[in-house]
Model the fold of this input.
Amino acid sequence: MTAPDTGTHTYADADAAAVAEKLVGPVIRGIDGDLAEAVAAAIERDNPDAEVVVDDQGGYVRISVPRRCVLTRVSLEEELGRAFRLSELEPALAAFAGRLKQPEEQLVWYLERQD
Done:
């Protein structure tokens, strides 16, 4: 799978740990490359003012956004080109960073602490 244009971002050594602790988002199993690409593209669409980091490790794809990451059903369906219930994402969701809540028609990963 080819990562979207954002690619993998490398942070300066001094700030890497601090920044990494503040990234949230899903980790998608690499089994379905089309789904992982669609999730990454939908997250980019749903978080237009945030830097989206896509790290494709082959077996999984980590998609991260600083502090708060939103994924809407509408954006994911547009990227996939078909209807898709967010609950269908669960088998492909290997893990995630941050806390997860599911308001109607979206998934939101966020930090508990906002410092």
